[in-house]
Amino acid sequence: MSRNSRTYDFPPYRPPNEAFSALIRVTRGCPWNKCEFCSMYKQIKFEIKPYEKVKSDVKMARQLYRRAKSIFLGDSDNLLHKEMPKIVAFIRKTFLEANRITTYARAKTILRQKMEFLSDAHKAGLDRLHLGLESGDAEVLKQLRKGVNPEEMIEAGLRAKKTGFEVSLYIISGAGGNERWQAHALASARVINQIKPDIIRLRTLTLQHGTPLKEKLVKGEFNIISPLERLKEVKLLLENLDLKDCYLASDHLTNYLWADNNVFYRGVAGSLPHDKEEMLKILQQAIEFVESTELRIKDSNQLYEEGFISSL
Ligand code: SF4
């Protein structure tokens, strides 16, 4: 069935905390699509959906979601859609019960758009931007082919905050490989401290088949950090965060660690600065466990290779 038929056009990806949100697709794919670790939209040609098509999807979503407390808009770069304020306003009018509308956003697009446009989208009812920082280290960003440098990330984050958006920043644990994990942790903390996001979401670099970074791994041009280094990296990041009001989430399966087949670490989560000491304690305990156990410690990369995790 073609996607122009009445089949509902679901966004293929959404953050885990949007699992119960109404999902509406404003664009399709990613206009950049070059990040070396990302497999999300590789098969999709980027497309900005016409306003009338989005509107008709919103009406269909209204029938599908009888009650939607929150709404997530896909795909990766919706602020490129010049009718975003109008789209958000229409969604607000259609879903009067929704408390929150959120979307993924790209730093380059936030920088490219006028403040007036961003503000119109926010005033229309777009509350939160999910922004992939991945790393605050210039070298790592280059290695990941993120297409943006740390200073641009800071500027984009500050612009989003100044507009009034809640900012949810994604960091990839392990993004620096075993050569730059310390630099990655310290530089990421520096960038995060400047942006002062509302939420930080940790993910673990899990190299999937078909991604350029996986090919580099196979050729020996990139090395995944060990679970022990990863715990130390997250601890170093956390120690260097200096935030007054932020929530750190590890809301993804990739943050887990297994001893043989039992999960012994589920990532750290809590409010900053309030829960910082408690989270550091959890990390220290996990580090000591890994250093002393004879059990085989696995992370999401081993689980992916063994076929226990299929899609991320
Ligand atoms: S990580 Fe984001 S910006 Fe990079 S290719 Fe994937 S969707 Fe596009």
Number of helical regions: 11
Low-confidence spans: none
The pLDDT mean sits at 95
Task: Characterize the overall form.
Answer: globular
In short:
The chain has 312 residues and is of the alpha/beta class.
How would you characterize the overall build of this protein?
The protein has 312 residues and is of the alpha/beta class. The chain folds into two domains: 1-102, 2-Layer Sandwich (Transcription Regulator spoIIAA), CATH 3.30.750; 127-312, Transcription Regulator spoIIAA (2-Layer Sandwich). Helix content is 38%, strand content 18%. The chain has helices at residues 51-64, 84-94, 107-112, 115-124, 138-144, 150-163, 181-195, 212-218, 227-239, 276-292, 300-305; strands spanning 22-25, 27-28, 47-48, 70-74, 100-105, 128-134, 166-173, 199-204, 246-249, 257-259, 262-265, 270-272, 297-298. Strands 1-4-5-6-7-8-9-12 form an eight-stranded mixed beta sheet. Helix 2 (84-94) packs parallel to helix 4 and helix 6 packs parallel to helix 7. The protein starts with 21 loop residues before the first strand and ends in a 7-residue tail after the last helix. The structure holds iron/sulfur cluster. Iron/sulfur cluster (SF4) binds at residues 30, 32-35, 38, 40-41, 76, 106, 132.
